[in-house]
Amino acid sequence: MLIRSLKWFLLWWMILQIIFEVVKSQVKSLQPQERISHTATYINNKLYILGGESITTNPTTNEIALKEFFYLDCSKSFDTTNLSWEFLSNIQVPTRWSAASAKGGINNDTIFIYGGFSNDENDLNLVYTYNTKSDTWIIPKILNNFNITSKKNLEAIINYNDGKIYLFGGTSDELGISNDMVILDTINLVYNIGNLTNAPTPRFYYGATLLPNQNIIYFGGNDGKEALDLDVVYLYDTINNIWNTNKVTGLIPSKRYLFSTVLGSDGRGIIIFGGFNVVNTDSLYILDTINLEWYVPNITGQLPANRYNHKANVIGNFMVVSFGYGYQQEKESDILLLNMTNEKYEWSIVFKPLNDTLPLPSTSISSPPTMTQTSSPTISSEPQSNISSTTIKPIIIAGVLVGILFIILGYLFL
């Protein structure tokens, strides 16, 4: 009797171990690949991540990373040590890295993806859009009277007052490194060209942020030879279509590119983080846009490893940094959080959304306009499911294994 009970105990222990290992391995597979050059777009309390280039050398995982499309739910609190990503269907998802993205469209519920690289040689589309309401990818028909070509390694800055995305500089096969300003009207779906007089020198991997006065500020980057200084800033007036140049003072950061920029919660300080060839203690600065002065803020919390070729978004009171080079996924989260509450900066692992009664701060100058949605040609006439097939895979596998083991048990002991 004792031997029989021991056998039952061992077999049940084996069953539980197998179920645990299967579920653990499948859950781990749902974690996204480490990546660079992805897009990160915040819309409707979700941070959407598209594509990017895999850091791994495995060509199979590289292909997976390029096709991955997922989001992080920011409507509720989360811990960066235990992130819960939601993967969307990869059917019809464009493969893109080094592209530019922004929220736009008539109802501001659409993600616009411009330019970038594709692993599909036949994919010559300049723009893709993703409608977050219908879960559909669209190739919009945009009036192009200026022979706009695809550019890469640039930033997309949206002005919600006019629904236009401003695309400065970057690189292209036709123009090389450029300093032109492409303007994409996301409401009327038409391209325009900005003024080139007094424009910055050609560059890519720069920093750019929209200010409350509807100027876009640009600085740093790479001109194809070296990293550029951050002692000069360039202001593009989106209302009057003119450029201005200003010298800055203070504790000027070292030359850099592939860094991120966001407008802080005070509406006047631009926070830059990371950059290529930058050390940890030199990774974060703030530019006071009123005094045009750089300074290093007092920051508490555990100092993270420097990153570059990452993305940063303002979500509530947090600067949310996603992926990039410079950290080890096994030791540090894909997401970094800088709490900016009351202009007291703290690196944190816990995200807390703002109270529903409080307005969300934004890098835009006003709330997006509300308009009526118009129809556009879609890639797929059927909405894609938000539920990935990999979500239920662990349950199916575990169930099959348990069934097989029960058959064995019945054969041996019944």
TrEMBL record:
Regions of compositional bias (Low complexity) in chain numbering: 364-381
The residue ranges crossing the membrane are: 395-413
- Region listing for Disordered, in residue ranges: 364-385
**Matches recorded under Pfam families:** Kelch_KLHDC2_KLHL20_DRC7
Q: Does the keyword Transmembrane apply?
A: yes
Signal peptide range? 1-25
- The answer, when asked if Transmembrane helix is one of the entry's keywords, is yes
Q: Which UniProt keywords apply?
A: Kelch repeat, Membrane, Repeat, Signal, Transmembrane, Transmembrane helix
Supply the name of the protein. Answer: Galactose oxidase
What is the species listed in this Swiss-Prot or TrEMBL entry? Answer: Rhizophagus irregularis
